[in-house]
Amino acid sequence: MKYNKYLIITFPILIILVSTFFYAKNIIYFYLTIPICVYVSFVRYYQEKNKLLIKTNKVLNLLKYEFTMYTVAVLTMYSTSSFGFISEIKSVEYTYIAFIISAILLLLYAVIYIKRTLLIRQELRKNNSK
Q1: Structure confidence at residue 91 as a pLDDT band (50, 70, 90)
Q2: Both 47 and 59 in a single domain?
Q3: Which H, E and C letters describe the chain, residue by residue?
Q4: Where are the transmembrane segments (predicted)?
Q5: Which of the four, 28, 52, 90, 130, has the lowest number of CB atoms within 10 Å?
Q6: Range of the domain at 98
């Protein structure tokens, strides 16, 4: 739980930077928010890792894949929607491709999450039966 004090500081900074970006439409504020989003993802990964009852290599690898897919999907949607005010990008169909990619990554995230929980339940049953 040592990350909670950093999260308390990080979330208001993220909210301030995002609101400043949408108000000022200055791209520098957008670039400043991306490391904060990645940091929050790392913190969520370590918090989830500490909560796990069974820490086998399979479970930890699935957890890594899960948070990687989620972070890339969210950053893809975030970056695509943030550039929506630029008229050149609005006319290009790349935004649809980005949203399709992020939707596929979110579906993979859900599948990996379900697979990880089933694997944990299976390991717990195996350990309880012994």
Answers
A1: low
A2: no
A3: CCCHHHHHHHHHHHHHHHHHHHHHCCHHHHHHHHHHHHHHHHHHHHHHHHHCCCCCHHHHHHHHHHHHHHHHHHHHHHHHHHHHHCHHHHHCCHHHHHHHHHHHHHHHHHHHHHHHHHHHHHHHHHHHHC
A4: 7-23, 29-46, 67-87, 93-114
A5: 130
A6: 54-130
